[in-house]
Specification:
106 residues, flat
Length: 106
């Protein structure tokens, strides 16, 4: 685990100080894409080889689905509450001030 974190931090530091050209950025993007594809492939092979995971796949899928639905619902609820508290109150206050300004000018 610490090796992964060290590699991530080291890569971020090098990326901060060494600027890539457009061609280098394109090559780096391709390498990242190949790395992710290889990672997903090797994870798929590991999952396919584990009979316990295959046996419990419906349960794992249901838990993942419920977790995703719960996360989305909580996110929507949080955004709704925060927008009601911060955004709509500000716009109501601004419209009240604007209405007062218009009434004063008449």
């Amino acid at each position: 685990m610490s090796q992964i974190l060290i590699a991530l931090v080291l890569g971020a530091i090098i990326g901060y100080f060494v600027k890539l050209s457009d061609k280098g950025t394109k090559i780096n993007g391709r390498l990242q894409q190949i790395g992710v594809i290889f990672l997903l492939f090797s994870m798929g092979v590991s999952i396919g080889a584990d009979s316990d995971i295959i046996k419990n796949l419906p349960t794992i899928g249901l838990k993942a689905f419920l977790f995703a639905v719960g996360t989305i619902a909580c996110s929507i609820f949080t955004v709704y509450i925060l927008s009601e508290k911060f955004l709509l109150n500000k716009s109501k206050g601004k419209s009240k001030e604007l209405k007062e300004e218009v009434e004063e000018s008449i």
